[in-house]
TrEMBL record:
Pfam families: EutQ. Transmembrane segments: none annotated. This is (S)-ureidoglycine aminohydrolase cupin domain-containing protein. The lineage of its organism: Eukaryota, Fungi, Dikarya, Ascomycota, Pezizomycotina.
């Protein structure tokens, strides 16, 4: 296979993160082949965050991750007090070992890519 794609309309069908907070939707959509010889895994994911009054930090990142905000407004804060408000077109990079808190006043949609093998369990819909 040379390349894969998913239409923009797929962002309207992001799975609920289970287990996870009630306002987080997350779905791996592309991933490197799973093998012991793959030393540089890469996974692309869709991420939707809805507003919540409480925002617990995400688990500690044991991989590097980068992303771009597609819709909405995403607030990111780290354990050092670094904070940023991101809007569509803004990109971010999260370093391995970070503790990150995501929040939003309404909603945020992002496409994220991480240095990890993903969990794509269903055929990729070509919507």
């Amino acid at each position: 296979m040379v390349f894969e794609f998913i239409s923009e309309s797929r962002f309207h069908h992001i799975d609920k993160l289970e287990p996870g907070p009630p306002n987080v939707y997350f779905m791996d959509v592309f991933t490197s082949e799973k093998s012991n010889s793959n030393k540089d895994p890469l996974t692309g994911s869709m991420f939707l965050l809805e507003h919540s009054e409480t925002n617990d930090p995400a688990p500690k990142y044991d991989y590097d991750e980068t992303g771009v905000v597609v819709k909405g407004e995403l607030h990111i804060a780290d354990e050092t007090g670094n904070k940023q408000v991101l809007v569509p077109g803004d990109t971010f990079f999260i370093h391995r070992g970070s503790l990150i808190t995501f929040s939003t006043p309404k909603f945020a949609v992002a496409y994220k890519t991480a240095a990890r093998v993903g969990h794509v369990s269903q055929p990729k819909a070509k919507i």
